[in-house]
């Protein structure tokens, strides 16, 4: 089975779950925090830049306070990882984040062929530029389509250094382009759900690298 066929199969078979989630979460955000319900931003995914849509989980004016030009690089980590206790989250947004539902609207992007279900997460262009200052090989992580979830999520973004994350993401691209097997994507997707539901402990970096081998 090709990666594109796997994406279509997952989107169709899971539609009875993600479509009601989009409706319910949209209603909750609208009534508890108002418009806009969705947040859209330009992100680098694969070989190009796309508009990535997700539920708005932060304050309406967060872009004026939280971007790469004002958020300092800490502990030599340049990936923009928002901590779970960030004051920028709205109450309903924090709940949606904890339930790992933020990216659900991107199923429509998968249907449109702009993203994959499993892949390296799209990144803001300024974050890519910041990473490139000390990691010239950052482009390797864009050698396959961006995804809603990916191997990094099995470890946890907060637990990884930039070098570890780029190593995993580059390895995933190599896997997709040279030895793709649909059941590995299925395993990553299943583990993502189990870890998010606290039914499984996060993987280690080596666990993920071994999985991709």
Describe this structure in words.
With 213 residues, the protein is α+β, with helices and mostly antiparallel strands. It contains eight helices and five strands. It has helices spanning 3-13, 15-33, 91-98, 107-111, 125-132, 162-178, 182-196, 205-212, and strands spanning 38-45, 48-55, 116-118, 123-124, 147-149. The strands form two sheets. The chain has a three-stranded antiparallel beta sheet. A two-stranded parallel ribbon has the order 3-5. The longest helix is centred in the N-terminal third of the chain and has 19 residues, at 15-33. The relative contact order is 0.14. Residues 68-72 have low confidence and may be disordered.
Q: Give the CA-CA distance, first to last residue.
A: 18 Å
Q: Specify the biggest β-sheet.
A: 3 strands, antiparallel
In terms of DSSP E residues, the strand content is 5-15%
Assembly context of the chains:
single chain
Low-confidence runs of at least 5 consecutive residues: 68-72
Q: Order of strands in the sheet with the most strands?
A: 2-1-4
Give the proportion of residues in helices: 40-55%
Summarize the structure.
The chain is an alpha+beta fold.
Furnish the topology, listing elements before pairings:
Elements: H1 3-13, H2 15-33, E1 38-45, E2 48-55, H3 91-98, H4 107-111, E3 116-118, E4 123-124, H5 125-132, E5 147-149, H6 162-178, H7 182-196, H8 205-212
Helix pairs in contact: 6-8
Keywords:
43% helix; globular; alpha+beta; 213 residues; 8 helices
């Amino acid at each position: 089975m090709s990666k594109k066929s796997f994406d279509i199969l997952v989107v169709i078979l899971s539609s009875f779950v993600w479509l009601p989630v989009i409706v319910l979460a949209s209603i909750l955000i609208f009534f508890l925090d108002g418009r806009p319900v969705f947040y859209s931003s330009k992100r680098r995914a694969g070989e190009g830049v796309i508009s990535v849509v997700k539920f708005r989980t932060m304050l309406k004016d967060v872009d004026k306070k939280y971007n790469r030009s004002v958020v300092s690089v800490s502990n030599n980590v340049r990936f923009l990882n928002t901590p779970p206790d960030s004051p920028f989250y709205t109450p309903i947004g924090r709940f949606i984040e904890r339930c790992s539902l933020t990216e659900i609207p991107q199923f429509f992007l998968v249907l449109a062929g702009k993203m994959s279900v499993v892949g390296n997460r799209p990144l803001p262009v300024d974050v890519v530029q910041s990473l490139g200052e000390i990691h010239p090989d950052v482009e390797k992580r864009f050698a396959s389509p961006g995804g809603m979830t990916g191997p990094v999520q099995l470890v946890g973004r907060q637990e990884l250094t930039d070098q570890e994350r780029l190593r995993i993401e580059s390895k995933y691209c190599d896997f997709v382009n040279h030895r793709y097997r649909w059941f590995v994507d299925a395993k990553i997707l299943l583990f993502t759900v189990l870890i998010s539901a606290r039914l499984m402990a996060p993987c280690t970096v080596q666990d993920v690298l071994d999985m991709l081998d």
